[in-house]
Design goal:
single chain; 407 residues; alpha/beta; Alkaline Phosphatase, subunit A; five-stranded antiparallel beta sheet; globular
């Protein structure tokens, strides 16, 4: 038996007036998902436990079967694992976004114009991070470059207590009330302020502005955490796994849980990604002996954060055709029994441009079997089935056909 999860990050949404009250999932043309829904288990699952923030870190751990209340130690440490940073127990790590802020003289009066600095290229970002490393690093602070706008700051013997706000939560807002605050926050705010002074006239940013692109003119720190301790996926569930993603967060989770984490040519973490190559690599992995593949696709989430309805719908359609459709067709040809699980990790509604904690629709298909199913795959159809899983980690056990009372 082969098991494949297709995780469309942020696909779920709220009804949108311009779509006649439909959500992007309802409006998208997705014949494969809709046909599978009619013969699959369809329902809602709560991936974000009460009291926890609806980040992709928490939600993906939950979908993978790792209870965030037990395993979650912060977002940045998961990304650090992907970058290859060897963390010590005493290290504090933070996500360091390259962002675009407005140009008011007072840092506290600036506005968050773009949490991704125009989805800056990895090559440009590495040049800026290297420049900042030379200027900002000391015996306590170390900067590491990741992918596009996503980077990592490690603080040796770092102290907890500071409160941070994800930049994608404050798009278009003044940063005044969202700056680092609380105990030990002053040093982090000072670093962010200095990064702006260093970056605003850097040649990379001057060239970006000349080309009509958003400059990456500041670091923004958030997602603090400590060295994670995740059980191996094979040890926990008895399956040899592969993690397929463009982003360091999921790659880090994959590495920390002992999965294979192949690079995917053209995988970008946005809607320009190589959808078809992710499916090809998954099939290659399954043919090479993997029992389980987790395919994470960031595109719809990025569109939700940007308020880009057109490309969110388009991304869902690409996932249906080039990932879900390709996998079903090719796995059918192989003749081996398989199961597919299709879902988002959390909603990223166009109307709010950030994550919310609402339960998400899931579709669980087993080859050769039929069920009552649903008329289509979307939020409303999933709710109408009456199937609801109140704890996200239950879904992985259900998917892998592991008794629920077995830890």
């Amino acid at each position: 038996m082969k098991y494949v999860v297709i995780l469309g990050d942020g696909m779920a949404d709220y009804p949108i007036p311009s779509l006649g009250g439909k959500t992007p999932l309802e409006a998208a043309r997705k014949p494969v998902a809709d046909s599978l829904a009619r013969v699959s288990e369809v329902g809602l699952v709560k991936t974000v436990p009460d009291g926890m923030k609806p980040g992709s870190d928490v939600a993906n751990l939950s979908v993978l079967g790792y209870d965030p209340a037990v395993y979650y130690t912060g977002r940045s440490p998961l990304e650090a694992a992907s970058i290859g940073i060897a963390l010590k127990e005493s290290d504090l790590t933070l996500r360091a976004n390259l962002v675009t802020l407005s140009d008011e003289a007072d840092y506290a009066q600036k506005t968050m114009l773009d949490y991704s600095a125009g989805e800056i290229s990895t090559e440009e970002a590495k040049e800026l991070v290297s420049f900042l490393s030379d200027k900002l690093e000391n015996e306590a602070f170390s900067l590491y470059a990741g992918v596009s706008y996503r980077h990592c700051l490690v603080v040796e013997n770092g102290k907890d207590g500071a409160e941070f706000t994800p930049p994608h939560d404050i798009s278009g807002k003044k940063v005044t009330s969202f700056l680092p605050k609380g105990e030990n926050a002053a040093a982090f705010l000072a670093l962010m302020e200095r990064s702006y002074r260093l970056l605003k006239d850097h040649p990379v940013n001057l060239a970006r502005k000349a080309a009509g692109k958003n400059p990456a003119n500041s670091l923004w720190l958030w997602g603090a955490g400590r060295k994670p301790k995740l059980d191996s996926f094979a040890g926990k569930f008895g399956k040899k796994g592969t993690m397929i993603s463009a982003v360091d967060l999921l790659k880090g989770i994959g590495k920390l849980t002992g999965m294979d984490v192949p690079d995917v040519k053209g995988a970008t973490g946005n809607y320009h990604t190589n959808f078809g190559e992710k499916a090809r690599i998954a099939l290659q992995s399954l043919d090479s002996g993997a029992d389980f593949c987790y395919i994470h696709i960031e595109a719809a989430d990025e569109c939700g954060h940007q308020g880009d309805l057109e490309h969110k719908i388009w991304s869902i359609e690409q996932i249906d055709e080039k990932v879900l459709g390709t996998l079903k067709r090719e796995l059918d040809k192989r003749g081996e029994a398989y199961s597919l699980l299709f879902l988002p990790d959390h909603p990223t509604p166009i109307s709010v441009k950030t994550h919310v904690s609402d339960p998400v629709p899931y579709l669980l298909y087993r080859s050769g079997k039929t069920g009552a199913g649903a008329a289509s795959y979307c939020e409303k159809a999933a709710k109408n089935t009456g199937v609801f899983l109140p704890r996200g980690p239950e879904l992985m056990k259900r998917f892998l056909e592991i008794p629920q009372d077995k830890d």
